[in-house]
């Protein structure tokens, strides 16, 4: 299960302008919810950067947000061991956003057209406590309110890797994917059972596939739930953004 994998590998204000302007012919405004920086205790860096690249290529204006609060813990990414040095989720997220990140509490869904949430252990530790409690998890209250605000406004939400568990918990009856429910290439396949325990529907998808819940306007992709190569993950996130674009 997910928590066993976590224990095995780890245990567990910015610039004056808060938007990353991607083009003078921007199509939509997309908020990206980050959870720190680094796979074991924050947002998965490849996924987060891939999301920013693909959103930029689609000519969207992107704004990065993160909870302004301590991380669940800090992990040395060379050894997988915990460190005593406390870290702030928003401060660490600024490394990905080139300093341009705002507190999640300041995110107003009425000002944005869509929400994107990359994966990484941080999504399961700092945006909720799934990495520690699995089916007994709770969402961070601000994360929960943010997801529900976008959903109730009929605005698309895209999530990849482990972050679909957030939608599974927050949006009743949603259909999502975290890839396949078994197989050597899917080390976190046990997450499927947790998603179904939340009352959500899981759609088995390969790394090249995307799950689109058109009714709820939720798009999900496996990304690094699959034991793949960086270009495969980049493309998985790109496929997710492509489907998001179709809902905008």
Order of helices and strands: HEEHEEEHEEHHHEHEHEEEH
Number of helices: 9
Rounded radius of gyration (Å): 16 Å
The separation of the N and C termini measures: 35 Å
Count of strand segments: 12
Mean pLDDT: 91
In percent, how helical is the residue content?
25-40%
Portion in beta strands: 15-25%
Structural class: alpha/beta
Main pleated sheet: 8 strands, mixed
Sum up the overall morphology in one term.
Answer: globular
Low-pLDDT segments: 4-25
Describe the structure.
The chain is of the alpha/beta class and 248 residues long. The chain is built from 9 helices and 12 strands. Strands 1, 2, 3, 6, 7, 8, 11 and 12 form an 8-stranded mixed β-sheet that branches. Strands 4-5 form a two-stranded antiparallel sheet. The protein has a two-stranded parallel ribbon with strand order 9-10. Helix 7 (164-170) runs parallel beside helix 8. Residues 4-25 have low confidence and may be disordered.
Quick take:
Helices cover 32% and strands 16% of the residues. The chain is an alpha/beta fold and 248 residues long.
């Amino acid at each position: 299960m997910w928590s066993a994998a976590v224990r095995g590998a780890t245990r567990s204000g910015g610039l004056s302008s808060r938007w990353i302007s991607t083009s003078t012919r921007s199509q939509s405004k997309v908020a990206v919810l980050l959870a720190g920086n680094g796979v074991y205790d924050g947002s998965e860096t490849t996924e987060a950067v891939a999301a920013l690249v693909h959103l930029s290529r689609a000519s969207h204006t992107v704004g990065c947000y993160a909870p302004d609060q301590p991380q669940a813990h800090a992990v040395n990414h060379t050894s997988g061991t915990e460190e005593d040095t406390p870290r702030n989720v928003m401060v660490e997220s600024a490394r990905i956003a080139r300093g341009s990140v705002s507190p999640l509490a300041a995110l107003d869904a009425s000002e944005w057209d869509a929400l994107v949430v990359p994966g990484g252990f941080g999504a399961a530790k700092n945006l909720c406590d799934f990495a520690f409690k699995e089916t007994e998890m709770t969402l961070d209250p601000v994360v929960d309110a943010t997801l529900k605000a976008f959903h109730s406004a009929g605005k698309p939400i895209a999530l990849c890797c482990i972050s679909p568990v957030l939608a599974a918990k927050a949006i009743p009856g949603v259909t999502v994917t975290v890839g396949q429910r078994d197989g050597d290439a899917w080390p976190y396949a046990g997450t499927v059972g947790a998603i179904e325990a939340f009352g959500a529907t899981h759609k088995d998808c390969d790394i090249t596939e995307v799950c689109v819940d058109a009714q709820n306007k939720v798009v999900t992709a496996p990304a690094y739930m699959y034991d793949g190569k960086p270009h495969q993950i980049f493309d998985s996130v790109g496929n997710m953004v492509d489907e998001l674009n179709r809902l905008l």
